[in-house]
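Dear colleague,

Following up on yesterday's call, I've attached the two folding results inline so they're easy to grep. Please treat them as preliminary; we haven't cross-checked anything against experimental data yet. The first protein's sequence and structure tokens come first.
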Amino acid sequence: MCEEHRTEFALQSSVAGRRGERAGPCKPAEARRAVERAVAARYRAADRTCDADALSDALLVASELATNAILHGGGITDFRVDVLEPGTDVRVSVCDRSDALPVVSPPVDRQGRHRVGGHGWPIVCRLAHDVRVTDLPAGGKCITAVVPLS
């Protein structure tokens, strides 16, 4: 999916995103904490434990999506996290103000100098088994990544 962006049109955007209000986490650390709380609550309710490496992958994806929304998308306008039944995947959605699709930057610039950064989108694509980019009706986009927890 990441090589060929899958773009969909969302029929509804969040109320908070339309009104410009704060909609959940607005920093990468807050996104990671939200994912950690959601996963912990679901696993605690099922009296199970989550694989630590899989949880680390989900936290990294949430952090990268939040960072990219801040750096390239004009800020986070909405954030959602859901642990899917039966607790084998976590779905993280981060919306921003930009209509631009994510891109992979070459590791070096035209002068042959190594670039700093540019690793977030490839990380998301590698760790998630489903990534979707959805156009929002009022402008902007929502990127949703589903990361396995096992």
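Below is the second protein, in the same order (sequence, then structure):
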Amino acid sequence: MSDHTPMLAQPLQRPSAGRAAAYLGLFVLGAVVGLAGALVQGGWFPGGLLLALLGEAGLLIGGARATGSRAGAVAPAGGWMVAVIFLTTSRPEGDFVFAAGSGSYLFLLGGMAVAVICATLGQGRQPGGDAVRLGK
């Protein structure tokens, strides 16, 4: 394709093996942060909740900046969501991680809000260089 074809008009390509491995690693890190956050938010209610949400936000923003794309924030958000949903189910013995309290609901809803915000703030597919600026 020529250099003048808009980026959104170009066909999508599969990510390289290194990028796919990075996304998989971010997915696993998101699951670990979700598990740790679920345990911390219940242990130290006001501070633990804030620490858990800040940890998630740090991972999501760091993943987006490290990969240079929004997918770097979406991959750990997906891992966080899978881990947290898995932890909301009760076991046959009656054990559960999340109690029916305001802290648990703030963690679940706040974590989803943090994921959406961080995925939105991630860098999109933008061409670089001075040639793409208007007036140049």
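For the second protein, one point worth flagging: The chain has a mean pLDDT of 80.

Best wishes,
A.L.
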